[in-house]
Amino acid sequence: MMRGTLDDACTALAQVHVLPDEPPSVSLYEVARIVTAALDIERFGVWCTTEDRSAIRLYFLYCRSTDSVSDGTILRKQEFPRYFEALDGRAISIEDTAVDLAASDLRESYLEPLGIGALLDAPLYADGEPAGMVCHEHVGGPRQWSSEERLFVATVADNVSRLLEVLQRQRAEQNLRAFREELRALNRLEEMARIASGVAHDLRNILTIVLANAELLDDELPAGQDRAPVEAIRREIGRGRDLARELMDFGRRVAGRPAVQTVRAFVETVVRGAAPTLDGCTVDVVDHGAVSRVFIDPTDFERVLVNLLYNARDAMSGQGTIRIELSTVRGVRHSPSLGRAVRVSVCDTGIGMDADTRLRIFEPFFTRKTQGTGLGLCIVQQVVTRAGGVVEVESEPGRGTSVHVLLPAID
Ligand SMILES: Nc1ncnc2c1ncn2[C@@H]1O[C@H](COP(=O)(O)OP(=O)(O)OP(=O)(O)O)[C@@H](O)[C@H]1O
Ligand SMILES: [Mg+2]
């Protein structure tokens, strides 16, 4: 039998209801405040299984010390197989994340950076099927969970399941359609990337053979003969091989290794690294405060930033200042499910885009540059979608472009 605060908390939880027309996060916010206080924990998260069961998506996250709410982060099964195995419809109780085997997958990338020392996860059910998890995360060192506390989180999960049923019915239609569309686009892109990568692989082998034979011809040319045609062949083969390499990379990186990243420090490191390739452009990083952390594969995040910096450089013909603005925003226009987000905006004062260009920029292989492959923004969108975020673009011909990358805040 539960006593004291936990008992009172159970009574309070039973009284939380979804009221018609109120924003979906209100009732979960109430639950989160009751639960984090009763258990004296920092983080309370509700994760829902995606329809194809390949991932869980953060439906609601509450951080007690900042009294803030966010959502949208995605954990994919293929990236964290051991955690998903442990999860599989069961409760998980970890008293020391530094040593527990079930935590090993997530330790370096998620638990350590967020300082989560112990956790108590309880499964959510919908129509008798596992539908997600309620996560109670203790920030600080290890912590023992009492049998009352374990019992209590099962009650929390029952209450969250009850509320989710109502909430999901309310907002399912609109959100599900948007998310399904996102997933479908991502799957289409991944399929295309796989095919392109295979073709590029064979193409590279063919080009290697052509190059070897061009070298042979070159050797056999009599002295004094014009070598320009052979040089041209060599140069074009070089370009072809570069393109093939880019295509192969595009296909290879379909699964990343997401980890918690501190946005400002990360952006500054990438800017320093990319500086020598930005011609005469300088970069100003402007931090509008309260910038939080995000959960994304570091190589992917770097590719996003570098691609946007290169586009800004090209748009300004290698002259001028590129601004990277960092801020935290709430409620994102194009993604009803993205709550508190970190916004990284790469802004240039270059040529801008006309309406037709603006409509096509995310298409693979769409380019208006003589040396472009047209994969840059396609990769940016793919990576950001995979991390649960969105990309928004503002542009005016002759005035410049701002590309906003919005990623779910993880704390
Ligand atoms: N900051 C920008 N300002 C103006 N136009 C842009 C900007 N960013 C992208 N574009 C337009 O969108 C097109 C597609 O961009 P994307 O980055 O996908 O490919 P790319 O830069 O042409 O080639 P690459 O594959 O080398 O990146 C560009 O060719 C350009 O016309
Ligand atoms: Mg580009």
Write structural notes for this entry.
The chain is of the alpha+beta class and 411 residues long. The protein has two domains: 4-182, GAF domain (Beta-Lactamase, 2-Layer Sandwich); 256-411, Heat Shock Protein 90 (2-Layer Sandwich), CATH 3.30.565.10. The chain is built from ten helices and 14 strands. α1 packs antiparallel against α2 (25-39), α1 (4-14) packs across α5 (147-220) and α5 packs antiparallel against α6 (228-252). Residues 307, 310-311, 376 line the site of magnesium ion.
Q: Measured on Cα atoms, how large is the radius of gyration?
A: 25 Å
CATH-wise, what's the superfamily of the largest domain?
GAF domain
DSSP summary: helix tally: 10
| Global geometry | elongated
Determine the mean pLDDT.
86
CATH architecture classification name of the largest domain:
2-Layer Sandwich
* Major beta sheet summary: 7 strands, antiparallel
CATH topology group of the largest domain: Beta-Lactamase
Keyword list:
alpha+beta, Beta-Lactamase, Heat Shock Protein 90, 2 domains, 7-stranded antiparallel β-sheet, 5-stranded mixed β-sheet, 46% helix, elongated, binds adenosine-5'-triphosphate, binds magnesium ion
Short description:
Helix content is 46%, strand content 26%.
Question: Which helices and strands occur, and which strands form pairs?
Answer:
Layout: H1 4-14, H2 25-39, E1 43-49, E2 55-63, E3 68-70, E4 74-76, H3 81-87, E5 92-94, H4 104-114, E6 116-126, E7 129-139, H5 147-220, H6 228-252, E8 259-262, H7 263-274, E9 280-287, E10 293-296, H8 298-315, E11 319-332, E12 335-348, H9 355-360, H10 376-386, E13 390-396, E14 400-408
Parallel strand pairs: 9-11
Antiparallel strand pairs: 1-2, 1-7, 2-3, 2-4, 5-6, 6-7, 8-10, 11-12, 12-14, 13-14
Helix pairs in contact: 1-2, 1-5, 2-5, 5-6, 7-8, 8-10
Bound molecules: adenosine-5'-triphosphate and magnesium ion.
